[in-house]
Specification:
With about 675 residues, this protein is of the alpha+beta class. It contains 30 helices and 8 strands. The protein is about 50% helix and about 5% strand. The strands form 2 sheets. The protein has a 6-stranded antiparallel β-sheet with strand order 3-8-4-5-6-7, with helices on both faces. Strands 1-2 form a two-stranded antiparallel ribbon. It is globular, with a radius of gyration of 27 Å.
């Protein structure tokens, strides 16, 4: 799969010019008197920030880091003594919204890297101490190595690109082998969520493979876990176990008998379903058996159950066409989506198969083709990338990620449609890709993406799956335009926008626990009792949730501090394996396994989750909820929740995101 991506919208300018300005700023700081240095620091920080945002910027700053420190950048700060730094605190600094905090943390990491590489003989920290510190920093900030951005990074804007660049630069220069065990554990944790976009994971596996091939690197006990990951991409079967290359592998296929071909098919399927990753060799194998008229092996190569096999037999010609048009070595990941699509049986829904026939031969607009080519390259053609994206989204509706974009509403909509209304999703893809326009309706008024102003994302980054890349810009503009149509109405616009934007299955009833005018908590007790009555099986007559429902949460960091509002989908509420009631939900964030502080740890596996689901105990989930929808015709009496349980939820709210939102009557009064 082509991992090329444009991960940011930062304009690349002349690095030499920026470095020259940084040199001038350092020189001015060096020449200033002690009392005047503080006034020179903003220029140094600003110049360093601009350099770090450019390709090659980390290397340029590292080459000057001794001068930067000796000029006095760290004097009087928490970073003054590198031997006293605490690795665990780097996460907060690297995720800060304050530009100077991010820059000085980046400078500190580059200072220690220069010490490790013996470019800088530091008077207070040795190379071994610096290496030990940086290894801990990498282990703690693995998400930045993956480029797995969360709500905190999106709130940062372009500053998150500095954090990612510095952590990745440090890893490249001190060696991934030092954090290999942590990397492997993190990769399996991410894969357990079955994301659609896996380029970050593939890059990390490639780094592990490079480490394993180095005779000077001993992976130790981590070697076994690494082998499964590496083989999933570079040698999942016996005939390609030594990664011979596509051309050689295809020559080997020509000489195989029926039994060996069957073994290959079974090996590919086992690896794919074990990891959620698809090897380019798998795509070559599938295309080979199709060309050679041995498509009877296709079911085995996809690892289908009786459900999937029946669907394949009924829609054999369509499946063959989708493979011919969309599955190549670069787009091999689409095979996993195809297998899961067949297992879901959604082709039996009357509109889906005709819509996929249309998709297979769709003529793309110049705008859609350009976006796909910029993100994924020119081989294979843009149509193939879009077909791969469609297969993955229909097969993995809970694997949609929003990338580093403030577009959680649009990502959630794509996921809900793929999960619940696949033919509607295919219609949206067609309009966006073919016509470069989507028209939706808000209370009967047509809303066109082509005639709407800018959305929440001023310019979308390219770290998205193919469908999101094409469709989200249109949905984003429509979502914001619907919000504009609510101007002048009293209350939160999500009350009207969510049902119109997501479709008929979203409940028209609406509950919120924040007063829009003041931002303070409002009717919290009533809100929680209503939520229990609507969603908790013990209080709603044991009625399972029928359609996934949009909801809003208050995202908090590891310290329980408020970061921002975020869109999710409530999927179901059920007992976990330990017989505790849990809420299972979809989070469009790229990694649902998060620490929301105060003991609220979001689980993604081991608690009864299906692939792509996140979960929390019901009480903890309720403590981060601020918006939910319901069917107003089904609303009954407020739940008679145990007051002790209700109080625990309220205390979690007051101790985290609600701490600064307490109504005046609840705020602590100053002593008389």
């Amino acid at each position: 799969m082509n991992d090329y991506q444009l991960g940011s919208t930062v304009v690349t300018v002349s690095l030499d010019k920026l470095v020259a300005k940084l040199d001038d700023a350092i020189r001015a700081l060096e020449q200033s008197e002690s009392l005047a240095k503080f006034g020179k620091l903003p220029r140094v920080f600003g110049s360093a920030r601009r350099v770090l945002l450019q390709p090659g910027g980390c290397e340029a700053v590292e080459a000057r880091i001794q001068r930067i420190e000796q000029a006095g950048v760290f004097e009087g700060t928490d970073w003054a003594e590198p031997g006293l730094l605490v690795p665990a605190l780097t996460t907060y600094s690297l995720q800060s919204k304050n530009a100077d905090t991010v820059v000085i943390e980046a400078l500190s990491e580059l200072r220690l890297l220069a010490v490790v590489r013996e470019f800088y003989l530091h008077p207070s920290v040795s190379a071994d101490q610096a290496r030990h510190y940086l290894i801990q920093v990498l282990a703690i900030n693995l998400g930045l190595l993956f480029g797995m951005t969360g709500e905190a990074e999106r709130e940062q804007g372009e500053l998150s690109l500095i954090s990612e660049a510095v952590v990745q630069y440090v890893a490249q220069n001190i060696g991934y082998e030092h954090v290999i065990e942590n990397l492997i554990e993190e990769i399996w944790r991410i894969l357990q969520q079955r994301p659609i976009r896996v380029s970050g994971v593939r890059k990390m596996i490639t780094q592990i493979a490079i480490c394993r091939a180095d005779p000077n690197v001993d992976l130790g006990a981590a070697g076994g876990g690494a082998e499964r990951l590496i083989s999933s991409l570079y040698g999942p079967t016996r005939a390609c176990s030594e990664d011979p290359g596509i051309v050689v592998y295809e020559q080997r296929l020509q000489a195989m008998d029926a039994q060996n071909l069957q073994n290959e098919a079974t090996g590919f399927a086992r690896s794919m379903h074990d990891t959620g990753l698809v090897s380019p060799y798998h795509a070559s194998f599938v295309r080979f058996i199709m060309d050679e008229g041995q498509d009877a092996l296709l079911s085995a190569a996809l690892g289908l159950s009786s459900t999937g096999r029946d669907c394949l037999l009924c829609y054999r010609e369509l499946v063959h066409t989708l493979i011919a048009e969309g599955i190549f070595a670069e787009t091999a990941q689409g095979l996993y989506g195809l297998a899961l699509l067949l297992e879901r049986g959604i082709l039996y829904q009357p509109p889906v198969a005709p819509a996929l026939w249309r998709q297979a031969k769709l003529s793309l607009s110049p705008e859609a083709r350009e976006r796909l080519q910029l993100a994924y390259g020119y081989q294979p053609q843009a149509n193939a990338w879009l077909i791969q994206g469609v297969l993955n989204m229909l097969g993995q509706p809970l694997g949609v990620g929003q990338g580093n974009n403030p577009t959680c509403q649009s990502a959630r909509a794509l996921s809900m449609w793929a999960y619940n209304d696949p033919d509607y999703l295919l219609q949206m893809v067609t309009w966006a890709a073919r016509d470069n326009e989507i028209v939706m309706h808000f209370e009967g008024v047509p809303v066109s993406s082509a005639r709407s102003a800018a959305g929440l994302a001023a310019e979308l980054t390219f770290d998205l799956d193919p469908v999101s890349l094409v469709v989200v810009p249109h949905l984003d503009r429509i979502y914001v335009e619907m919000g504009r149509l609510c101007i002048g109405r009293e209350g939160d616009p999500h009350r009207w926008v969510n049902p119109e934007f997501h479709g008929w299955s979203a409940g028209r009833g609406f509950a919120i626990n924040v007063d829009v005018a003041t931002g303070n908590l409002d009717k919290l007790d009533e809100f929680l009792r209503h939520f229990y009555a609507s969603y908790h099986p013990y209080y709603n007559g044991n009625q399972p949730l029928i359609h996934p429902q949009p909801a809003g949460i208050a995202v908090t960091d590891r310290a329980g501090r408020f970061i921002g509002w975020h869109a999710i989908t409530i999927l179901r509420v059920a007992l976990d394996p330990e017989a505790h009631m849990r809420a299972y939900f979809y989070n469009p964030n790229n990694d649902s396994g998060q620490d929301w502080g105060n003991g609220v740890l979001v689980s993604t596996s081991g608690q009864g989750e299906r692939f792509g689901e996140a979960s929390l105990p019901f009480e903890e989930f309720a403590s981060r909820l601020y918006i939910f929808h319901f069917d107003p015709l089904e609303r009954g009496a407020l739940a008679d929740v145990n007051q002790e349980e209700l109080q625990r939820v309220i205390e979690r709210i007051h101790g985290s995101w609600g701490a600064s939102r307490l109504p005046a009557a609840l705020q602590a009064q100053p002593p008389v």
